[in-house]
Design brief:
mainly alpha; 2 domains; two-stranded antiparallel ribbon; 2 strands
């Protein structure tokens, strides 16, 4: 008895990572499709289009989404990301990156101070009213009273 093989000639062959739908790309990163559409609307993504205007994504888009996510994790906003990713070399935007680094260092210092405060609160056997450290910190957060400026004499 001869062996027969059925072929489906209507199947489209695809190279993985080279012809993804918006849903496939979103699923790959655990994102909602509206996030990718929004990133496209603000100029972060520029997918190709197929017949009927459907978005199609390839390996370059995979790398782009990964870079966007990395930038967001580093605390960059979408405007800054669009600027940094607008050229092949991020150092073309070194001033923006330096400014962001200063802001990050400030936020890290604030987070470290908050962590120290929480650690002290957890370790201190005294109440806030009794703890000299807490008392000092509380007083340092109270703004000084506004100074009254002397009135100028009428001419």
């Amino acid at each position: 008895m001869p062996i027969t093989v059925q072929l489906n000639v209507h199947m489209k062959s695809r190279v993985p990572d080279e012809d993804m739908t918006i849903g496939e790309l979103a699923d790959r990163f655990g994102l909602a499709t509206h996030v990718l559409r929004y990133w496209e609307s603000v100029g972060l993504l520029t997918p190709g289009r197929h017949e009927g205007g459907h978005r199609r994504y390839g390996s370059a888009d995979l790398r782009r989404v990964a870079m966007i996510l990395m930038g967001k994790e580093a605390g960059l906003g979408l405007r800054e990301l669009r600027e940094v990713l607008s050229s092949a070399d991020p150092m073309d935007h070194s001033e923006l990156l330096r400014e962001h680094l200063v802001a990050l260092e400030h936020r890290i210092a604030q987070a470290q101070a908050a962590k120290a405060l929480i650690e002290h609160a957890l370790d201190c056997p005294l109440s806030f009213d009794e703890c000299p450290h807490a008392h000092e910190r509380i007083l340092s957060r109270i703004p000084a009273p506004a100074r009254e400026e002397p009135c100028e004499a009428w001419p």
